[in-house]
Specification:
By secondary structure, this protein is mostly helical. It contains five helices and no strands. α1 crosses α3. The protein is globular. The protein starts with a helix and ends with a helix.
Length: about 70
């Protein structure tokens, strides 16, 4: 499985200085689920990707790549 989604999310989360726990609180998902996304074990749905993009300020062009 291609893990561009997880790598991109991790990059932006770290740039924002957030832990997985902090991001999870803002996104109303568990830190464990964020970890699974970042390591490629889970692939988030479109609504989750949209929320993640908004919270982590991922540019719209990058967001498109996440759902491709």
């Amino acid at each position: 499985m291609d893990n561009r989604i997880g790598k991109t999310i991790r990059k932006y989360r770290i740039q924002k200085g957030m832990t997985q726990e902090e991001a999870g609180e803002l996104l109303a998902i568990t830190a464990n689920y964020i970890s699974q996304i970042e390591t490629g074990k889970k692939r988030p749905g479109l609504s989750t990707i949209t929320k993640i993009s908004e919270v982590l300020d991922i540019p719209i062009a990058k967001s498109y790549i996440l759902v491709e």
